[in-house]
UniProtKB/TrEMBL annotation:
It comes from Mizuhopecten yessoensis (Japanese scallop). The keyword Metal-binding applies. This is L-ascorbate oxidase. Residues 102-210 form the Plastocyanin-like domain. Pfam families: Cu-oxidase_3. GO terms for molecular function: copper ion binding; oxidoreductase activity. InterPro entries: Cu-oxidase-like_N (IPR011707), Cu-oxidase_fam (IPR045087), Cupredoxin (IPR008972). Residues 1-22 form the signal peptide. GO terms for biological process: iron ion transport. GO terms for cellular component: plasma membrane.
Amino acid sequence: MEQTCIVFIVYILAITATLTLGQSSENIWDQVRTRENPCRDTTCGEKQDVCECYLTVEHRLTMMIEEEGTLVVPKGGQLYEYDKPGSPIIKSEQIPYILTADANNSRLVIAVNRRFPGPQITAYEDQTLIIHVRNLMDTDSTTVHWHGMHQQGSTYADGVAMVSQCPIGHGQEFTYKLKANPHGTNFYHAHIGDQRTMGLYGALVVYPKQDFPSATKQEHVVTLQDWNHDDDASTLYQRMLYGIYDQARKTPYKTTSSRDGAMYSRYRFHSGLVNDKGRYYTSSNVHNQAPLTEFDVAPNRNYTFRVISGRASDNNCRCF
Ligand SMILES: *[C@@H]1O[C@H](CO)[C@@H](O)[C@H](O)[C@H]1NC(C)=O
Ligand SMILES: *[C@@H]1O[C@H](CO)[C@@H](O)[C@H](O)[C@H]1NC(C)=O
């Protein structure tokens, strides 16, 4: 009898241990998915060798509180639930997760940890980046490229679909391991189809081992993106090949190309976004009053603004 009981207790303990271990890796995905920092708390610090982060990639809609199935609309720089025009949404836990783009219709984007652009990864030079990517998109596979990282000895972690890896399918996880080198303002972005322009990108800031004398501790990251209302990636590609027309005016849009003749005009630029936010202008001075990104600054202080271009259309600061 006593022996049975002990065996039983051991059995219960074993089950509990299994559940706890199983849960802890589940938990880290979920913990970081609803906060700003995508990385494990005990990593990525100045004195640490490793920076370990978790990125969950998923489709989301702009201008929606998805949990409640509620459309939001812009007015006077704020957002309102469509059926409650009297009181703006101010709940701080909701605001970062309502994606707006330029507030024109509810559009599909690819979010990382529910955000668009994805959360910032901040590491130190020569740290080992261990970045787990989980694909929860139902209909697309993905890869992530670590733009600017030299990847010496780690080409397999470069994230170029079909070249350095097979794409990560729905429900799959993939772990990238590389050195954070060189330091500077970089970004991670999808390297398959047009997923970057749909939102799969985010800042990757690598601090130098030694601060520059001019470095300010106060800094802001600014990501720029052009935004288009009309098309999915395949339509845009076909239009790049065959032309884009304004049907109402019966005229083609002017195409643009790089100096060596490569076509670039996949996008009509409807609105510019700064960190996911912009306004749709119907004429040069009439816009839809969508909220904009604000940066907190105090007078007589110096700030570093790190500017990242996630743009797709022809421009001088595009980088691949
Ligand atoms: C959304 O943008 C389109 C142009 O793409 C425009 O015709 C339409 O009026 C805009 N909708 C609103 C509600 O501003
Ligand atoms: C800001 O930077 C300028 C130029 O480098 C410098 O002269 C000034 O002292 C700095 N101000 C503060 C508050 O650090």
